[in-house]
Design goal:
It is a single chain. By secondary structure, this protein is of the alpha/beta class. It is built from 20 helices and 15 strands. It has a six-stranded parallel beta sheet, with helices on both faces. It starts with a strand and ends in a 29-residue tail after the last helix. The structure holds ligand ME8.
Length: 565
């Protein structure tokens, strides 16, 4: 049977500087969802890449005394390296300077041109190079009013207006541009939003976009003529594509849009439209207004969902490359490990809202959830299995299990059988990573509590005493009809180890290394090969007599005083 396809994308990042925590955030979240979908039977295609054209990149290159091509070729490997370090399992990595992309962009322009969606005119107005955005007089007037109300200036010392998005001075541009009849898509877009309430998520972003489109759309400049670092437009010599149009098209050119090759056409037909396109809230208008209008104009389907998450804030400010307050992910990975890093951002920052991040909080979450709860559970369980069961997963007989369940109860099995995977999967599928991690932590906490309450160390003592007594009475405990203390001990440890097996499978999309390690220590197979996570998480599947190993602590406790950052 053909698997259902699942296409997801990250924004393609500007190569004006190295990757930072913000860009890594979107990429890690996308990767976790890609892994989750793969382990739940989907045929996943996960795309990320780089936005390498435009004035901002050209300026960054000039500032470094390099050609734009030299510059982008130097920065691109830094992104690839960062994503490799964070174990991002992308299926394709597109760079907008690749010929396959230029071909698709040119094809798109020809389509729009032939369908009458493009005309030539002159743009006179303001432009923000760091944001690569045109601002209309109405937008600037609205911003000036807002600033005035806050008692803040809306103009730079030199008299130029400030950018409503990044508050840097805007440049004035007067140039011949091609225009896309965006205004013609105002009503079709509004109709589409209404008919597809899940298209823009979360709700707050949907409302923001609705109000923006309701206030009226203007035609959009889609070419530039005062510099050349972009894709040349075939029917308009001297024009290169406006960088945002070039960039947005990556989501389809990477699949093969605009190519004649049968394998490209097949891939495009197979995966487009995307199930989810992740973006930060800063670029929602491009993705929820311009992008769907471009697709409509070209006669293509629209993505199912554009999900805009919030900003990571450090000391209350948005972290960004251009602001120079961006933190390098490597420094944190050194402290938290790759799994700890991935876990922190997905667990502690509610996806969709802004989140303040701090090293103190990272250490707190890491120590509480990973070192103390999850890591400690594994180490206790594996140590007790070695000490009391000779390092083998216990063998349980159905009858004994039934009797012991009746006698002692089995809260862990109940939790798992009571729809744990459903709750976890519902949260994950709704991009509620924090909710999904909370569900897993419920089982971790329940397993730790269960160990305390069932006290295997006491059962082990009772079992030893019982065995001694049996020897003195020349009895064979194997003949005993009633469960023995040793049966009770095996039952309890089985429940703990079985919970560990399931917890690792549930944590795997977020923490692939520690989960794989736990399965290895339990003597199980490759956790990354799971294709039916729900079936894997069926209670009672842990085989008997597997050789377990203790190993080093999964997560070493961190001491804030020892950390130099
Ligand atoms: O906008 N918090 O690229 P970009 C959370 N090339 N996420 C953040 C963040 C922060 N402080 N800072 C950045 C571009 N991000 C265009 C995109 S797509 C066709 C073209 C993340 O390098 C977030 O996903 O400025 C944001 O939308 C993206 O990086 C912007 O990356």
């Amino acid at each position: 049977m053909n698997k259902e396809t699942y296409y997801l994308t990250t924004p393609i990042y500007y190569v004006n500087a190295a990757p930072h925590l913000g860009t890594a955030y979107t990429t890690v979240a996308s990767d976790a969802l890609a892994r989750f979908m793969r382990s739940n039977g989907k045929d996943v295609w996960f795309l990320t890449g780089l936005d390498e054209h435009g004035q901002k990149i050209e300026q960054a290159a000039i500032a470094e005394g390099k050609t734009a091509q030299e510059w982008v070729d130097e920065v691109a490997p830094k992104f690839k390296h960062a994503w490799e370090t964070l174990q991002i399992t992308y299926d394709d990595f597109i760079r907008t300077t690749e010929p396959r992309h230029a071909q698709g962009v040119q094809y798109f322009f020809e389509q729009l041109h032939s369908k009458g969606h493009i005309y030539l005119d002159t743009y006179q107005g303001y432009y923000c190079v760091p944001d690569e955005t045109f601002f209309s007089d109405e937008q600037l007037a609205e911003f000036a009013e807002e600033r005035q109300a806050e008692g803040l200036p809306s103009k730079h010392n030199d008299g130029s207006p400030l950018c409503p998005d990044c508050q840097r001075p805007l440049g004035y541009v007067e140039e011949e541009n091609l225009f896309f009849k965006l205004s013609a898509f105002e009503q079709p877009l509004l109709d589409y939003y209404e008919a597809n309430p899940g298209f823009i998520q979360p709700e707050i972003r949907r409302n923001e976009v609705l109000s923006f489109v309701n206030s009226g759309l203007k035609d959009l400049s889609v070419s530039r003529t005062t510099f050349s670092w972009g894709v040349p437009i075939p029917f308009a010599p001297g024009h290169v594509s406006y960088v945002w149009v070039d960039a947005l098209l990556n989501y389809i050119t990477a699949l093969g849009y605009g190519s004649d090759a049968p394998e490209d056409q097949e891939r495009f037909a197979k995966y487009w439209p995307a199930q989810v396109q992740f973006v930060g809230k800063d670029i929602i208008r491009f993705h929820c207004v311009i992008w769907p209008a471009m697709l409509m104009a070209a006669g293509l389907e629209l993505p199912e969902t554009v999900f805009a998450h919030g900003f990571l804030l450090t000391k209350g400010e948005k972290m960004s490359k251009s602001k120079g307050n961006a933190v390098d992910p490597y420094a944190l990975i050194d402290i938290l490990s790759v799994d700890g890093y991935r876990y922190y951002f997905l667990r502690d920052v509610q996806f969709g809202t802004d989140g303040s991040i701090s090293l103190e909080r990272m250490i707190q979450v890491y120590n509480a959830d990973l070192a103390n709860s999850w890591g400690n559970l594994c180490s206790r369980a594996l140590n007790m299995t070695a000490k009391y069961l000779g390092g083998k997963t216990p063998e349980l007989w159905e009858k004994t299990t039934e009797r012991l369940t009746a006698e002692m109860g089995n809260p862990l099995a109940e939790l798992v059988k009571g729809g744990l995977h459903n709750r976890y999967a519902a949260a994950f599928s709704a991009e509620d990573y924090s909710g999904a991690m909370n569900v897993v932590m419920e089982l971790v906490d329940a397993a730790n509590l269960y160990i305390e309450q069932s006290a295997p160390w006491t059962l082990a003592k009772l079992a030893a005493a019982e065995a001694e007594e049996a020897i003195s009475r020349s009895e064979d405990l194997a003949d005993s009809k009633a469960p023995t203390q040793a049966d009770r001990l095996s039952f309890v440890l089985y429940n703990v180890l079985e919970s560990m097996r399931i917890i690792a499978a549930l944590f795997a999309p977020v923490m692939p290394n520690s989960s794989a390690e736990v399965w290895k220590r339990l003597g199980l197979g490759n956790i990354l090969a799971i294709e039916d996570q729900a079936a894997t998480c069926t209670w009672g599947d842990l085989p008997a007599n597997l050789a377990t190993t203790i190993g080093d602590p999964l997560f070493m406790r961190l001491n804030e005083d020892d950390i130099v950052f």
